[in-house]
Amino acid sequence: MDKLAEARRRIEEASRIAVLTGAGISAPSGIPTFRDPGGLWENFNIEDYATPEGFARNPEEVWRWYAWRYKKIREAEPNEAHRLLAELEKKKGDGFLLVTQNIDGLHQRAGSKRVIELHGSIHRARCTACGYRSELPPPEELEIPPRCPKCGAMMRPDVVWFGEPLPPGAFEAALAGFRSADLAMVIGTSALVEPAASLGRYAKHAGAYLIEINPEETPLTPIADLSLRAGAVEGLRALLG
Ligand code: APR
């Protein structure tokens, strides 16, 4: 049996599936990735835009950058890859876990119900003083920087910057899901940023069948049982269609 047919069969038979996604799954929706040619980190300095120190130095500039991304994301639509994963969740029920590094919320808009957002969400802000969280208003009503409605202090994007802890319990829940999976899929991530990058390895070491979907090779490629050199839409169509 060819590897694609075997992978399709294993997905059909799996009772516990864990999926990790990265920026690549939202690329077909027009959202730029980080490390591809022309990606965000080619044009914006991580230290200035994705660290607490960068935010402390120039909160207005960081907020302008997030407001720009937020507007693009609000105008974007989930793509077929997001939808195919939402359908797989419906089929597998509680045996399906979706973990994402993305902050765009496109999985939820495509119908995914249970999503662990390891790096937070661009749709929320958090008060730098009292920790109060609120959903962002529509982009045209977003003041820069937003002020906390509770205490008046400046708010920050409710996302995880480099050097910051992940949301409490998020990685623990993701790790439990990947360690107990029969089958794991890692889609659209360069597999460079920890701790998310290790989830596929943990699943494999625990005996899961590991599938990767990425047009490029990544550090995970050598240990995957099947690594499809394909986009998320084409790869998921081939596996689930
Ligand atoms: N389908 C699938 N994968 C794609 C597609 C596509 N259409 N287009 C690009 N890719 C792949 C690229 O080959 C690359 O491996 O998506 C990956 C995107 O990698 P990154 O830009 O590094 O994004 P990601 O892995 O999600 O980054 C992880 O780094 O900067 C932080 O917090 C940020 O969550 C992000 C984390």
* CATH domain fold name of the largest domain: Rossmann fold
**Annotation, overall tally of beta strands:** 9
CATH superfamily of the largest domain: TPP-binding domain
**What order do the SSEs take from the amino end to the carboxyl end, as H and E?**
HEHHHHHEHEEEEHEHEEH
Number of domains: 2
Mean pLDDT: 98
How does CATH name the architecture of the largest domain?
3-Layer(aba) Sandwich
Computed over alpha carbons, the radius of gyration is: 18 Å
Describe, in plain words, how this protein is organized in 3D.
- By secondary structure, the chain is an alpha/beta fold.
- It folds into 2 domains: 1-31 and 78-119 and 166-241, 3-Layer(aba) Sandwich (Rossmann fold), CATH 3.40.50.1220; 38-75 and 123-159, 2-Layer Sandwich (SIR2/SIRT2 'Small Domain').
- It has 10 helices and 9 strands.
- The strands form 2 sheets. The protein has a 6-stranded parallel β-sheet, sandwiched between helices.
- Strand 2, helix 7 and strand 3 form a beta-alpha-beta unit.
- Helix 6 (80-92) packs parallel to helix 10 and helix 8 (170-179) packs parallel to helix 9 (199-205).
- The longest helix has 17 residues, at 59-75.
- The radius of gyration is 18 Å and the shape is elongated.
- 40% of the residues are buried.
- The site of adenosine-5-diphosphoribose has 25 residues, from loops.
- Adenosine-5-diphosphoribose binds at residues 22-25, 27-28, 33-36, 39, 101, 119, 188-190, 192-193, 213-216, 218, 231-232.
